[in-house]
Amino acid sequence: MRFTKMHGLGNDYVYLDCVNGPVPRDPAKLSQQVSDRHFGIGSDGLILICPSEVADARMRMFNADGSEAEMCGNGLRCVAKYVHDHGIARKPRLALETGRGILTVDLEVKNGKAERVRVDMGEPILESARIPTTLLGDPPIDVPFEIGGVAFRGTCVSMGNPHVVLFPGDEYFNPSARDLVVEHGALIETAAIFPRRINVHFVKVHGANEVTMRTWERGSGITLACGTGACAVCVAGVLAGRTDRRLLAHLPGGDLELEWQESDGHVYMTGPATEVFSGEWPTDATS
Questions:
Q1: What are the CA-CA distances from residue 213 to residues 26, 45, 79, 177, 192 (Å)?
Q2: pTM for the whole thing?
Q3: Same fold for the domain at 2-122+272-286 and the one at 143-265?
Q4: Which of 82, 97, 188, 216 has the fewest C-beta atoms under 10 angstroms from its C-beta?
Q5: What is the CATH number of domain 143-265?
Q6: Do residues 276 and 5 lie in contact, with contact meaning Cβ atoms separated by under 8 Å?
Q7: pLDDT tens for residues 272-286?
Q8: Are 240 and 227 in contact, with CB atoms under 8 Å apart?
Q9: Catalytic residues
Q10: Which CATH superfamily is domain 2-122+272-286 in?
């Protein structure tokens, strides 16, 4: 089975071309196998690039624990690059089918290869029942809750997948101290107030147009970047009165440019996509 390893700001996935090859029999199990960083290829999950009857291609995304997720912003940028660079649809603007619906992406192409991708992520989902969360508000904005004896205030947003954005103290960004993101991320992800689990983002605000963020990703744990999470941070920052609609987000793997446009209500995300290597995975390991 031929695979390609790609990443968006270090948020890395194994990609399978299911337009020109077969769909694996058990993608959930395969995702667990290939994601293992000691005995597999090593990744945050598995992404299938599939044919679509309504778009240039369809993306299916599986976390490292085998659970299927609705969306992945960094993954979508890489899918766009693969679709363009490998000739599935060599166009500067693509339509890609996702669990969020059909999303439009624009490619910055240099020497025949897509280097940066701008994604129209659509409108954020702000109704608590659709995020989903049992916290009050549509959406919940700076709502207090307690997990594991620790008090937090969270703003919840869905970008087709659920996010809670926290604006804690600097201790979550102190590399010489205990890693509180690791300690608290898993507890928040699986809390009962988030019935489908949740992506957790810890955000430090530098100014109206600049933040640093760290992510505990649902089903994968600590990741170097989360594209949908950065979009959620942009929306949450506006809702909570902490940032403007145009935002530069610093993630451990690099920077993303975000904008929550007032004119159409859509969130736009711009960032790089990188192909690392290709190889063969033994087919008997997928059974």
A1: 34, 21, 24, 17, 24
A2: 0.91
A3: yes
A4: 97
A5: 3.10.310.10
A6: yes
A7: 999 999 999 997 655
A8: no
A9: 72, 226
A10: Diaminopimelate Epimerase; Chain A, domain 1 (3.10.310.10)
